[in-house]
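In the lab's daily routine, each protein ends up as an entry in a very long ledger. A line of letters takes care of the sequence, but it says nothing directly about the fold. The fold becomes a row of whole numbers, each drawn from a learned catalogue of backbone shapes. The protein below has been through that process, and both of its lines are reproduced in full:
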Amino acid sequence: MNKIASFTVNHLELNPGIYVSRKDKFKDVVLTTFDLRMTTPNKEPVMNTAEIHTIEHLGATFLRNHADWKEKTVYFGPMGCRTGFYVIFEGDYTSENILPIMKEMYAFIASYEGDIPGASARDCGNYLDLNLPMARYLADKYLNNVLRSENPSLKYPD
């Protein structure tokens, strides 16, 4: 079997950043998948499920309610390796194109207070596995150390 595209990225050289993972074309529609890498693979501890789950609830809610991005958002969810998230937008985008909305989303998560959207037995299949303080901490770390840095990583290493 051939390796899928995400398994061909050199994770030994990968730093936190925003990367175009793939672009898929369906007739005249392009879907761009982004790798939102929050931790350094195989060097930093992975994120725990509770904070990942919280970031997923808050990020997906934010994007699907955003005036400019709600109609373009296809998916926002965690990577199985627990080092980041994938976001898929309808459209042909670059990492530079989405940097502003990612800054806005992670600032929203980092400062979020109150009840987590969808955090009930009726609305979620694992509503007890949430951790807002750690989600806020990780979002703030990614926002300030990566997204707001002078030279954020926007291209996969060769």
